[in-house]
Amino acid sequence: MNDQTTVLGADHERHDGPARGVDRPRPLLVGHYRFPYGDATSNRLLQLARCAAPHGTQTLVVNDWPCDGSAPSQRDEVAGIELITLRTRGGNPVTRMAARLARPIRVLRAMRRRGVVRGDVSVVLLPMAMMTLGNWAVLRLALRCPVVVDASERHDRHQFRRGWLTPYFVRHRWSTFLATRLVHRAIAVSTTLGAYLERRGVDVLVVPPQVDCDEFAEPRSSSLTGGLRLLYAGTPGRKDMLDVILRGISRLGPQDQARVRLTIAGVTREAAAASSDLDISVLESVSAEVTFLGRVPRDRVLALLSESHFSLLVRPTGGYAAHGFPSKVPESLSAGCPVLLNYTSDLASYVQDGVEGLVLDGNGPDDVRRGIERALRLRDEDWAPMSRAARERARDSFDHRAWRARVTAFLDPTRAAS
User: Fold this and answer.
1) Which distant-in-sequence residues (6+ apart) come within 8 Å of 11 by Cβ?
2) Chain-centre distance of CA 301, in angstroms?
3) Fewest Cβ atoms closer than 10 Å to its Cβ: which of 69, 164, 302, 350?
4) What CA–CA distances, in Å, run from 292 to 84, 148, 234, 266, 298?
5) DSSP letters along 339-369, please?
6) Which stretches of 86-162 are DSSP H helices?
7) Given CA atoms 330, 333, 335, 340 in this order, what sign does their dihedral have?
8) pTM score > 0.85 for this model?
9) Which residues pair with 399 in a beta bridge?
10) Low-confidence spans in the chain with pLDDT less than 70
């Protein structure tokens, strides 16, 4: 097993020698994702890293790139953090297992090559999925600093066809169990998940999914007189109720359906039929224009948001939906694209009906139909203030800059011994 290490510094140049000395300790975030531009988890960790470091410092991120055949982006500009990307040569099961078990040692070795020593790190930030005995014990003992967990979801067994027989679900629950026994502080994505951790004696800061509002251009959607442009972006799996959305559209009158265009980005028609709740027979009964784009790069998603009148999200209430927080919502608001959704998680605290979006009465097909009918009755002069309110909400409530003071104070190692 051999590691390849790429180091990207704050000045966006590659460094091969030791790092310049740091004036004061800064946070370390350890990941195992397509960081920083891969998926919702990568984006959450990126923005969390940006707001974790006190002014005058940068969070050090050591990311162990997954052995899934993909390659890190060639972009070497990651503003606000210092990034070390590890790559393991070889992708057979034995190599992957060895790399996973040795991950904390490999992280420490990469930091040492970079010139980062024990006193340079003030706190270790671990995603919940990476909360293992090995990661916690080695990093905690070697760096002699607190470990704080970021909890962004709590899965239910009914999300998985095999329930407790699903290895991913078992690992997820085991990581949560360890976190409630071994760490004293955690960042949670929602108040429900935060309350769950607090009941188990963990000090919690609730931080919703964050965005960088400067990434989003001004909205450029067409006039509503030309039809209603709706967008679902993501991989629905067993989280989002794509079938309900299509059933709601199918119940619109023929004239209303003729004015609706739905774009589904992130999944193909075939994949949606195989891995989500979508019933293809319902899709075939819809006369509105429905386009499946499959997986698209992040830049394309941002462009689609800026061109759409509303993004759509329908989820069950309770369970994983209450514990999580859909990252689609902050991104849609940042793009000036109001949301059409039902309330789950903490969304009622951020989306007001008729202000930043349109709130459905429930999560049934007729609720979707009535919501779309409301959207179809809007005029451009009604929609424009909603778009502006969406962007204002995103900057005030979800931009990583708005959270920096609270997150850095929470991660301050003098706050409490752990």
Assistant:
1) none
2) 14
3) 69
4) 36, 39, 11, 8, 16
5) EEE---TTGGGT--BTTTEEE-SSSSHHHHH
6) 93-101, 103-114, 133-143
7) positive
8) yes
9) 211
10) 1-23, 74-77, 90-91, 415-418
